[in-house]
Amino acid sequence: QVQLVESGGGLVQPGGSLRLTCEASGSSVDLGLMGWYRQRPGKSREYVATITTFGVTDYLDLVQGRFTISRDRARNTLYLQMSALNSDDTAVYYCYADERDYPQNEYWGQGTLVTVSA
Question: Are 27 and 82 within 8 A, CB to CB?
Answer without folding.
Answer: no
